[in-house]
Amino acid sequence: MSNFSKIAHSEIEICSPVSWETYQRRLGSILNLEKPSILDIGCGKCGLLSKLVASSGGNGVALDLPNSLATEITIEAASLLNQGRIQLVYQSALDFLGAYQGSGFDLVICV
Fold first, then answer.
1. Phi, psi of 109 (to 5 degrees)
2. Taking a C-beta distance cutoff of 8 angstroms, is the pair 21, 52 a contact?
3. What is the pLDDT of residues 75-98, one digit of tens each?
4. Rounded CA gap, 6 and 27, in Å?
5. Tens digit of pLDDT for each residue in 21-34?
6. Are 47 and 78 within 8 A, CB to CB?
7. H or E element, residue 62
8. Are 31 and 56 in contact (CB under 8 A)?
9. Which residue(s) pair with 107 in the sheet?
10. Would you say 97 and 82 are in contact if contact means Cβ atoms under 8 Å apart?
């Protein structure tokens, strides 16, 4: 990961130009599903994924490359990781999806 990315995103919980409130409005119907399954490709610090998982009661897969911002996950994401509600995978999206044997995801995000 570049030093620029670490510096630019060091104080930002959700590494996105879109506010959490906008995500809530736009994804409301998915967040209202019973325990949705969410995949975040290029999860960064898992800020967005952790908020989606926590607010929906669902679970998520955080996918990023080794040495990415995912090594600096948020406190909320760490808590959900410890609860088994978020799984952190260090792998390329191509490799992960090529080997994926699950039943699919209700939401896939890639910001």
1. -120, 150
2. no
3. 999 999 999 999 999 999 999 999
4. 28
5. 887 788 888 778 89
6. no
7. strand 59-64
8. yes
9. 38
10. no
